[in-house]
Write a structure and sequence with these properties.
Blueprint lengths: L5 E6 L5 H8 L5 E3 L6 H5 L13 H14 L2 H17 L8 E5 L7 H7 L4 E6 L2 H11 L12 H5 L1 H11 L6 E5 H6 L1 H12 L40 H5 L2 H14 L1 H7 L11 H8 L12 H12 L7
Helix pairs in contact: 12-14
């Protein structure tokens, strides 16, 4: 197996990536598994911020890079690529041609993926960031800011990282961008174009994924995709209900200000939310990693902890 047989799907979480995976794997040429996360621990070693470890990921990265300088770096990279390809090849049970690895947070390592798998097909799936935010809040029943902390990079960083990657690879024939809204409104047209790009025979039956079990597992969409066997556009404007809730309205406005009208337009979406700096969103921006450890306490208590830390009465390292 070589990297030409690898299809990567990256996106913000809650962007419809499980639906896209179900549609693209609904044939005899594609193997897949729920959401492997396989590449993140192996290809993120050079970015310690992505994998904080008890043993110090910073020191580990320094040590690995020093080790690589003493050996054949190219062989190290080739061996790592081949090791990962060997793992993917084990998914092939019935002579399938491709393997899909759908892991939304691969947005963090897209440049590394191109480095180690330069011939792989990479699909960037976009969705309206406000719809993503709403889906995160409602799917996992997030009721306050500290409960949203585990998705902080998904909400704040992912759209920008994805767009930067798209801009950088605008002339790369192996990178394709698709919008969730287009996918659910004209699924036959969009999926046919992707099948043709992948050189996989297309017929209308692939749009009904009811009998496709390859993409199912512990990871992926726990709710939406299982409510239907075909794409539908019932959720395209559902996010507005969340925005209209009193407890979230100002957060959405602050998010719109953070992303900016200019970026949202470049990302392919018009801003239907008034841009406004808000206290609640600024609180979210200022909450940092240590609060994740305290995610079961209220925002007021979190702010009290921060005050105690500044006074030197509590030390979190």
């Amino acid at each position: 197996m070589n990297d030409r047989n690898i299809i990567i799907i990256a996106s913000q979480p809650r962007s419809g990536s499980t639906l896209l995976q179900a549609l693209l794997s609904n044939n005899k040429q594609v193997a897949t598994v729920s959401e492997p996360w396989l590449l993140l621990p192996f290809l993120s070693y050079n970015n310690p911020e992505l994998s904080k470890a008890i043993y110090s990921s910073v020191l580990a990265s320094n040590g690995i890079n020093d080790f690589k300088r003493k050996i054949n770096t190219k062989k190290f990279d080739n061996d790592l690529s081949q090791f990962l390809l060997n793992q993917y090849s084990q998914l092939i049970k019935n002579n399938e041609k491709f393997v899909i690895d759908k892991t939304p947070r691969y947005y963090e390592i897209l440049n590394e993926i191109i480095k180690y798998f330069p011939n792989s097909k990479i699909i960037i799936l976009k969705r309206n960031p406000f719809a993503v935010l709403s889906s995160i809040i409602n799917t996992w029943d997030k009721n306050n800011l500290n409960e949203l902390l585990e998705f902080k990079r998904d909400i704040l960083n992912a759209p920008i990282i994805l767009q930067n990657f798209i801009d950088k690879n605008s002339n790369n024939p192996n990178v394709k961008t698709i919008k969730y809204e287009t996918l659910i409104n004209t699924p036959e047209n969009e999926i046919q174009k992707l099948y043709e790009w992948l050189n996989i025979p297309f017929n209308d039956s692939v749009i009904d994924y009811a009998k496709n079990t390859k993409y199912k597992g512990e990871m992926g969409d726990p709710t939406g995709i299982h409510k239907s066997s075909k794409p539908n556009n019932l959720t395209s404007e559902k996010w507005i209900k969340t925005y209209n809730k009193k407890e979230w309205s100002n957060f959405f406005k602050g998010y719109a200000d953070y992303l900016s009208e200019e970026f949202l337009t470049h990302y392919g979406y018009s801003n239907k939310v008034p841009s406004q700096k808000t206290q609640i969103f600024n609180h979210y921006l200022n909450l940092s990693y240590f609060e994740i450890k305290l995610h079961n306490i209220s925002l007021i208590k979190l702010l009290k902890y921060k005050a105690l830390i500044k006074l030197g009465l509590i030390n979190y390292s």
